[in-house]
Automatic annotation (TrEMBL):
Molecular-function GO terms, alphabetical: DNA binding; sigma factor activity
Residue ranges annotated for the RNA polymerase sigma-70 region domain, each copy included: 22-83
GO terms for biological process, alphabetical: DNA-templated transcription initiation
Name by which UniProt lists this protein: Sigma-70 family RNA polymerase sigma factor
UniProt lineage: Bacteria, Bacillati, Bacillota, Clostridia, Eubacteriales
Length: 83
């Protein structure tokens, strides 16, 4: 799964940073979607959609402030779960 995200990164030098972000926040994104949808398969789909978007736009996403990044990922997860 992670290889798919790394393949679409807009900047190859950011692979380690992306892996760190993914490993840190994947549970948060998944659980946010699961709380809304109540289905593990749909929550997994949301997780994939969110991190695919993040990978495609990784150079534009500010990662310095972890609280803002977490809030951004929760917002993305909620948005996709409600769609």
């Amino acid at each position: 799964m992670l290889a798919m995200y790394l393949a679409v990164l807009d900047d190859r030098s950011s692979e380690e940073q992306f892996i760190d972000v993914y490993n840190t926040y994947k549970r948060l994104v998944y659980h946010t979607a699961y709380k809304i949808m109540g289905d593990s398969y749909l929550a997994e789909d949301v997780l994939q959609e969110v991190f695919l978007y993040v990978a495609k736009n990784f150079s534009k996403i500010h990662r310095e402030n972890c609280h803002k990044l977490a809030a951004y990922l929760v917002s993305c997860s909620r948005s996709r779960a409600y769609d």
